[in-house]
Amino acid sequence: MSELPRMGDPDQVVDLPSWAEIQPAYRATWEERNATSGRIWTDVELAYQFAYEAYRNPRYRGRDFAAVAPELRRDWEAHHTVSPTWDEIEAEVRAMWEDPPRPVAG
Question: Where are the alpha helices (DSSP H) in the chain?
């Protein structure tokens, strides 16, 4: 599998893998970066899945986080009326948006 394009490349046409296919790369990257945080992957997986699905959405692709954050917040809050709140997940969404992990070679 090739590398994912950066968020800032709206003209690149790609066939992105499904969440089930890419989730191991996100998990491995997150666990490596957060090994001493005291948190576990399941605490943040929903936020990363939301961010990845937004990344796949042409409506958001190629835009920086500051530009899409208000729309992402509205989308999150429209579909997630209980915890975690946007304020609780925004840091994880931003982290994926600004530095998306690369797929694990298989």
Answer: 19-33, 41-56, 65-79, 86-98
Domains in the chain: how many in total? 1
Residue in this structure with the two tokens 């579909």, named with its chain if needed: 79
Query: Model's pTM, two decimal places?
Result: 0.75
% of residues, the chain, pLDDT over 90 = 29
Question: Average pLDDT of 52-73?
Answer: 90
Contacts of 46 (CB under 8 A, 6+ apart): 80, 84, 89
Q: Is residue 50 part of a domain?
A: yes
Of residues 11 and 33, more confidence is placed in 33
Domain membership of residue 54 as a residue range: 40-106
Could you tell me if residue 9 is inside a domain? Answer: no
DSSP 8-state assignment for residue 21: H
